[in-house]
User: What shape does this take?
Amino acid sequence: MGLKSSQKRERQNEKRRLRNRSYKSRARTMVKKAFLIIEEGNLDAAKEAALDAVKALDKAAAKGVIHKNNASRRKGRLMTRLAILEKGA
Assistant: This one.
């Protein structure tokens, strides 16, 4: 059965896991979408998608879902690809 405190802790952990999952999933989806648009070569859409991805990553990092350095690394990789596209266009 377990102590009341451990049962409460389990409930809290489950709630937080579900909440965190949505932030993490959104960030991953936005980044993937941005990379796909960059691969297509559409500069205007790529810039917009990159900004959306950066926003999602920053939000996840602010909530503590991912580490701030993890968010920073992903943003750097995204912006590098965007810069290559801008240079080529």
